[in-house]
Amino acid sequence: MGKNQFSIRRRKKGMPPLPTPPVDNGEPQNSISMPVGTVKASKKKVGGARLWMRFDRWGQSELNEWDKNAIIKRAGIPTRDLRILGPIFSHSSSILAREKAMVVNLEFIRAIITAEEVLLLDPLRQEVLPFVDQLRQQLPHKSLLKVNGTCAEQDDNEGHFPNAGHWLPVPEAVEGLQAELPFEFQVLEIALEVVCTFLDSSVADLERDAYPVLDELAMNVSTKNLEQVRSLKSNLTRLLARVQKVRDEIEHLLDDNEDMAQLYLTRKWIQNQQPETLLGTIVSNSPVPAAPNLRRLNSARSRSGSLVSNHFNYYDVEDLEMLLEAYFMQLEGTRNKILSVREYIDDTEDYVNIQLDNQRNELIQLQLTLTIASFAIAMETLIAGWFGMNIPCTLYHTEGLFWPFVLCLTIGCIMLFLVILGYARWKKLLGS
């Protein structure tokens, strides 16, 4: 069967024709184009990279653009932690402990802290710049594994801990851990200090703007002053919520020793090191024969293991507890300042309401007084209406009777007004 007959039979049966093979004319063929959805997905992946600043324990920093996969691989954290650092949870406060990292989301500071470095998200924002400056200034002077300002030299008789390409003796490293806070807590302390300072300054600005506005409202209740107090109260509510979130997160950590113990990243890193890794340089750098070297290796291993176990208790969280308690008390003081401003606002509102109630009572008393006067005048009008009727009366023809009659009628109305007014005062319907 020929090729043309096969094509005709396929068309008769309603089947689509076979695709025509490309003609090889010696010219390069065009490659298959990528679907539009795939191009968009690739663009999103490229655009998903965000700006991060990396700080090591010596204060050295560098700017990088990393996507989620790079951050997850570098810090060893789950994907949900990056969502916490995203814009959806930008106003939440959380300090999460992971196996190798600490995820910090405090106000405008969103960072991932490990035992060796800090990854700071969006470091060029105006609010984050003070935190960056503090890291550059304080980290070189508060380095965890610095001993007397210089790195300790390697000693063949002791175990060593690796530190950014250097080795520190185990006893000196443990003494350094006891003398200073671990690297992750140094960064956490700087973050809490910057956040607490920012919140405290915001409260100070609120106090400076609040008291004059409230005093002005107490003296003059107007629409403009009421609008200013309304705006002030909304700002106070938002600021109180922000302070409360940070305070509650610190309080949550203080209430759980297990969570605080998980935040000791440096301690977990040291405890997870194998003795062979810690003492490997002894064998490689020692010219002593094998048997004495093994004996010294075993003694060094036992000495370093006992030293680490003695100095590193898993539930020893006193350093972190003291650190968190200090900033918890500071946040508590900031919260009390906000509550005092809110109490002053409530007192001013109560005073204004009392003023308005007093004015309302005065208006009611005035209205009652005018009602009594209207009743007395109505009685005089009633009598005048009676004499205004077209009914024959002998009094109409009496000379000199009009003015005495009007005078007596007016005096009678005044006496009626005074009697009713005295009765209202006797019933305490009117003020004195």
UniProtKB/TrEMBL annotation:
GO cellular component terms attached to this protein's record: membrane
Residue ranges of coiled coil: 229-263
Topology with respect to the bilayer: Multi-pass membrane protein
UniProt key word Phosphoprotein: no
Pfam families assigned to the protein according to its UniProt record, in alphabetical order: CorA, MRS2-like
Signal sequence, renumbered to the chain: none
Disordered: annotated span: 1-34
Molecular function GO labels: magnesium ion transmembrane transporter activity
Keywords tagged on the record: Coiled coil, Ion transport, Magnesium, Membrane, Transmembrane, Transmembrane helix, Transport
Location(s) in or outside the cell: Membrane
Superkingdom field: Eukaryota
Stretches that traverse the bilayer: 368-389, 401-424
UniProt cross-references to InterPro entries, sorted A to Z: CorA_TM1_TM2, MgTranspt_CorA/ZnTranspt_ZntB, MRS2-like
Free-text function comment from the UniProt entry: Magnesium transporter that may mediate the influx of magnesium.
Family statement drawn from the similarity comment of this UniProt entry: Belongs to the CorA metal ion transporter (MIT) (TC 1.A.35.5) family.
Protein name: Magnesium transporter
